[in-house]
TrEMBL record:
The lineage of its organism: Eukaryota, Metazoa, Chordata, Craniata, Vertebrata. InterPro entries: Cadherin (IPR039808), Cadherin-like_dom (IPR002126), Cadherin-like_sf (IPR015919), Cadherin_CS (IPR020894), Cadherin_Y-type_LIR (IPR000233), Catenin-bd_sf (IPR027397). This is Cadherin-2. PANTHER family: CADHERIN-2, CADHERIN-23. Signal peptide: none annotated. The chain crosses the membrane at residues 491-513. It comes from Pterocles gutturalis. Residues 1-33, 34-148, 149-263, 264-372, 371-477 form the Cadherin domain.
Length: 673
């Protein structure tokens, strides 16, 4: 503080002075740890003096006085094994270090320490204190080698099987699971010089899986005794050695199974000239059975594939004989090679079989005569230009093919008189006219072709030459004649068949037309002479209302079933007493009654239908039963009362028609009355 001395008037009487007040600290704050729980780690097997962790506390009092000077100590350790004082703490810095040996994670994995911090330099009487917890985890090191649970493991495997697990090797390791110090690796130290086995590690169980990677033959090896060592992924800690339990023996027994027989050699190559006759012995093709220790009978042989069906095999001895002549030029021979496949089977359980291929290399012989190509040619009537190029074709190969000799035969004499042939190369020749003019037509020219084989083979091939008239360019001009001449037998037969089929179709159509005309005529109404009135009474459904029907289209009477509906009648010819055309309730349409055999029945049916029809006019009005149409060939029924003909006809025959026509007989047959 600054103090001033003044008089009553405010005048300074002395110089100002500073008054210093010192606040003396007292121990009124406890130490506080930065964390209530401290975590640390230490490797197992650590030597004394190994640093573990540091704990820190703070005090709000004066750090330069005893009130703020802290001291640390360990109050307790849990668990207390192998020693109650495994750790110590620096009382000033709070560093925790190991003080005793014997840290073993497999025995104690974690220690819990209670740490106390006290001020007043740790004075237990006047100092204030506080506590915190230090958790120390003992980490794992590879101080435990893997150990097999048994000294010998056993397994078995069928011969010729691969990718098969034959044995499970189990180990124990006290280190922390699923760490490099626990994960096991297996290696074979002996018993498998050819590398037929491998050992994989199961990541979940740490077991060793002995697996076959190469086929094993029972006839060669019946048992394997493997020596196996187990190690961890990381080396053992310094000073620790592998015990004998880290090595084990694996005894594997091979099981004999029925194996497939095999042909020796496979494929088998045989060289043979073509033309070998059927029934000849070609070779013997046998197989071997690898199962020497099984009680089996001899093998049986059969044919599996023989494209040309040339061969057969003896089922017991395997001797192969021919069933047909071997032909190198067959379509089943490729590059002079013919392949056939045979099967050898045993009687084991289960039965097994093996296949073998026989390759027959066929040597060529001169068994094919050359032929001319092409078979047809065209030339002109005149000498120039008239050269025809031909080629000799021989299925054989050298030396039984070209060069070829070409010549014309001596007979008939006209061949050499009209033609000449010249060889232009080993396979080609040129045929031309010898005479200046040869009449147009088709000529068969025989050509003798001989190959170079030993002995020679020759044939006479016929070249069909079409001689035609040519223009200045050497092109045929009589195309129509050449085309007609060039038609073969097959083409002519095809044309004739087409013509015959066409005629049959036309005949069938004509017959069908005639039959349809007869049916149509049978349906038409037959009308006799006009003097027979009875035959003029036609049945064409309900007739209508009397004389006024003369304006109707009477042509409809010929087909009474096809009557026009009222809706399409012309308005000008509609009867006055018909129902007007307007929207009416829809009643069920009464079906047309079948045509009665008698007109009286017909009228009665119409009356009954009209009486029951709710849409009909009143009963005392003139009824319209149907529309008869116009153009009837029978004329109107009103002709019965025609003034022009009524006095000239005799109607006495109406009395013969029965009681239903009595009224008509009285009206017309009563004489002057």
């Amino acid at each position: 503080l600054r103090a001033h001395a003044v008089d009553v008037n405010g005048n300074q009487v002395e110089n100002p002075i500073d008054i210093v007040i010192n606040v003396i600290d007292m121990n009124d704050n406890r130490p506080e740890f930065l964390h209530q729980v401290w975590n640390g780690t230490v490797p197992e097997g650590s030597k004394p003096g190994t640093y573990v962790m540091t704990v820190t506390a703070i005090d709000a009092d004066d750090p330069n006085a005893q009130n703020g000077m802290l001291r640390y100590r360990i109050l307790s350790q849990a668990p207390s094994s192998p020693s109650p004082n495994m750790f110590t703490i620096n009382n000033e810095t709070g560093d925790i270090i190991t003080v005793a040996a014997g840290l073993d994670r497999e025995k104690v994995q974690q220690y819990t320490l209670i740490i106390q911090a006290t001020d007043m330099e740790g004075n237990p009487t006047y100092g204030l204190s506080n506590t915190a917890t230090a958790v120390i985890t003992v980490t794992d090191i590879n101080d435990n080698p893997p150990e097999f649970t048994a000294m010998t493991f056993y397994g078995e495997v069928p011969e010729n099987r691969v990718d098969v697990i034959v044995a499970n090797l189990t180990v124990t390791d006290k280190d922390q699971p699923h760490t490099p110090a626990w994960n096991a690796m297996y290696r074979m130290t002996g018993g498998d010089p050819t590398g037929r086995f491998t050992i994989l590690t199961d990541p979940s169980s740490n077991d060793g899986l002995v697996t076959v990677v190469k086929p094993i033959d029972f006839e060669t090896n019946r048992m394997f005794v493997l020596t196996v060592a187990a190690e961890n992924q990381v080396p053992l800690a310094k000073g620790i050695q592998h015990p004998p339990q880290s090595t084990a023996t694996v005894s594997i027994t091979v099981i004999d199974v029925n194996e497939s027989p095999y042909f020796v050699p496979n494929p088998k190559l045989v060289r043979q000239e073509e033309g070998l006759l059927a029934g000849s012995v070609l070779t013997t093709f046998t197989a071997q059975d690898p199962d020497r220790y099984m009680q089996q009978t001899s093998l049986r042989y059969s044919k599996l594939s023989d494209p040309a069906n040339w061969l057969k095999i003896d089922p017991v001895s395997g001797q192969i004989t021919t069933t047909a002549v071997l032909d190198r030029e067959s379509i089943y021979v490729q590059n002079n090679m013919y392949n056939a496949t045979f099967l050898a089977s045993d009687n084991g359980i289960p039965p097994m079989s093996g296949t073998g291929t026989l390759q027959i290399h066929l040597l060529d012989i001169n068994d094919n005569a050359p032929q001319v190509n092409p078979k047809e040619a065209t030339t002109c009537e005149t000498l120039q230009p008239n050269a025809i190029n031909i080629t000799a074709i021989d299925p054989d190969i050298d030396p039984n093919a070209g060069p070829f000799a070409f010549e014309l035969p001596d007979t008939p004499a006209s061949i050499k008189r009209n033609w000449t042939i010249i060889r232009i190369s080993g396979d080609h020749a040129q045929l031309s006219l010898r005479i200046r003019f040869l009449e147009a037509g088709i000529y068969d020219v025989p050509i003798v072709i001989t190959d170079s084989g030993n002995p020679h083979a020759s044939s006479t091939s016929v070249l069909k030459v079409k001689v035609c008239q040519c223009d200045i360019n050497g092109d045929c001009t009589d195309v129509d004649r050449m085309v007609g001449a060039g038609l073969g037998t097959g083409a002519i037969i095809a044309i004739l068949l087409c013509i015959i089929i066409l005629l049959i179709l036309v005949l069938m159509f004509v017959v069908w037309m005639k039959r349809r005309d007869k049916e149509r005529q049978a349906k038409q109404l037959l009308i006799d002479p006009e003097d027979d009135v009875r035959d003029n009474i036609l049945k064409y459904d309900e007739e209508g209302g009397g004389e006024e029907d003369q304006d109707y289209d009477l042509s409809q009477l010929q087909q009474p079933d096809t009557v026009e509906p009222d809706a399409i009648k012309p308005v000008g010819i509609r009867r006055l007493d018909e129902r007007p055309i307007h929207a009416e309730p829809q009643y069920p349409v009464r079906s047309a009654a079948p045509h009665p055999g008698d007109i009286g029945d017909f009228i009665n049916e119409g009356l009954k239908a009209a009486d029951n029809d709710p849409t009909a006019p009143p009963y005392d009005s003139l009824l319209v039963f149907d529309y008869e149409g116009s153009g009837s060939t029978a004329g109107s029924l009103s002709s019965l009362n025609s003034s022009s003909s009524g006095g000239e006809q005799d109607y006495d025959y109406l009395n013969d028609w029965g009681p239903r026509f009595k009224k008509l007989a009285d009206m017309y047959g009563g004489g002057d009355d």
